[in-house]
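[Q] Does anyone have a clean structure-token version of this?
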Amino acid sequence: MMDDLQPGQKLARGVSRYLRSLGYAPLEEFVPVRGLRVDVMALGPKGDLWVIECKSSRADFQSDSKWAGYLEWCDRYFWAVDTEFPTELLPDGTGLIIADPYDAEIIRMAPEDKMAPARRKKLIQKFAMDSARRLQSLRDPRPGLDGVLLDGAGGDAPEA
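[A] Here you go.
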């Protein structure tokens, strides 16, 4: 399984494991709004939301022009990098997590910038819906068509 993961996905795995140990619920590759996809969004036990962007190299970081747009979609923003990453490249005023595929650790806590309550509610609802859909797709990977279950032969189920 680890061979199938890209370097950034390996960092996200370690970050997610670490966040779970802190009581957070992490969700990888979350889309808070059309056009933005964060590497990890984490919902905390008190309803706080963290965004963690995983960068596997200098080139990966330098090619990311969307990260500033993520700041309005979280209470705290972190970069997750490995021990070889040149951390002096990372902007001030952001958090820092050192990670590997198995674990992580917060090196610099991100400053808190609380979201508006209406945005938080909308985002937590989307987080819950996306999480539930992902869990259901693991249990039932063969989705129906427009809410209608398909029969075993690939056609529509008979009318009831």
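[Q] Thanks! Anything notable?
[A] The beta strands are 25-33, 36-43, 49-54, 76-81, 95-99, 104-108.
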